[in-house]
User: What shape does this take?
Amino acid sequence: MTRKVRTRYAPSPTGFMHVGNLRTALYEYLIAKSQGGTFVLRIEDTDQERYVDGAVDVIYNTLKTAGLKHDEGPDIGGDYGPYVQSERKDMYLPFAEKLIENGKAYRCFCSKERLEALRNTEEFAQGGYDRHCRDLPQEEIDKLLAEGVPYVIRQKMPLDGETTFTDSVFGEITAPNSELQDQILIKTDGYPTYNFANVIDDHTMGITHVVRGNEYLSSTPKYNLLYEAFGWEIPTYVHLPLIMGQNDDGTTSKLSKRHGSTGFEDLIKDGFLPQAIINYIALLGWCPKDNQEIFTLAELEKAFSIDGISKSPAVFDYNKLEWFNGEYIKAMSVQEFEQAARPYILQAIGNKPFDTLKIAAILQQRTTKLTQIPAVIDFFAQQPEYSKDLFVNKKSKTNFENAPIMLKAVYDELSVLEQWNHDILHDTLINLAVKLGVKNGTVMWPARIAVSGKAVTPGGAVEILDILGKKESLKRMEQGLQKLS
Ligand code: GLU
Assistant: This one.
């Protein structure tokens, strides 16, 4: 019988969502959704030392912004709760005691001092345990228990043979059992280690697919021995390769801050859209069957399959992400874009009463990151100091001789306009060019320079005049004429 697919995203609340974590969450989500399954959120907060205030909210907000809606979780409940590990902490000890009964685990009474002394021996300098308590006689155990000597519970690894499993991405992996440590399952305070809790949680929550970073690959044989000891079905493992960053010298190394932003919220602050980030991250390690690149989340839910995941490390390419972002921006309606761009537009124009929708319209096709916006529209709020050389342009056939004549002609035509809108401005300037027998550009260029003070602007003369309004436009043209005289 095949079980209903259940995946879980199990973040530790560290206050930061690295793109690697987000990719794990996305793949968990997509594996569930592509197979009609359930996507579970479990908060792994037992490592109290790493606990950060407000960190759980970062997880909720990220999933929400990214559109990865979970079907069960701490905030919405479900049949397999609690969904916060610290609320499950009394569940684990009975499972460990069961393993002791079955001879798959044992109590270890070794003192801190003894374990520290072990570190001073050559064999255990790098860690590990000499299995001192593995075969204590029962009377000895009973005596220590009666004395109340604190103990941990350790997993009893097989001393020979090997453990093999198949990972969906990395294929068959075999580990000699002699290399597996008798790892601690339950600490002296009675609470589980991560290595024990994740197995118990995944099983008791009915998880069918475990997706996580490949740093867990080497621990998986230990987990599988636990599943086997309990007689539980081993989940399908999907270990994901590292995400790398491109170094200046052409090499790559694990993606970190020196490559650029690595957190979801930081990428949003850099001006990337959540949908573009998700689309890009989906392709960081997964290859669709055809060469499609732009996917909505709904399309990903249909197209995603585990066999398209690659085991070679993916390189996070900020330029490629920016390309995706530009494509997403272009595909928006101008209203949607205005909404996304508004904070950046307002940053540049402050409380000046310009039409943000019109500004958005001239920005949309040329914007690849929202953060580019303030600098390219700064001239609306305040015209920069500019050199009169800007009026000279070869392609538009303008020079110091004709520029003042053109600008004055534009000024005269526009100053008598009773209505001021895009179409009227457009027709007036085109007709003027015809009347003067010059290229459109010869009329438009000096006008645009005069009202913007910039060689490069989003939008042309007509759009900028329209947005600035009659009074401000005429004022700027007067100043331009003065500069040219
Ligand atoms: N809490 C672990 C982490 O954030 C999850 C690992 C797993 O998915 O099993 O790395």
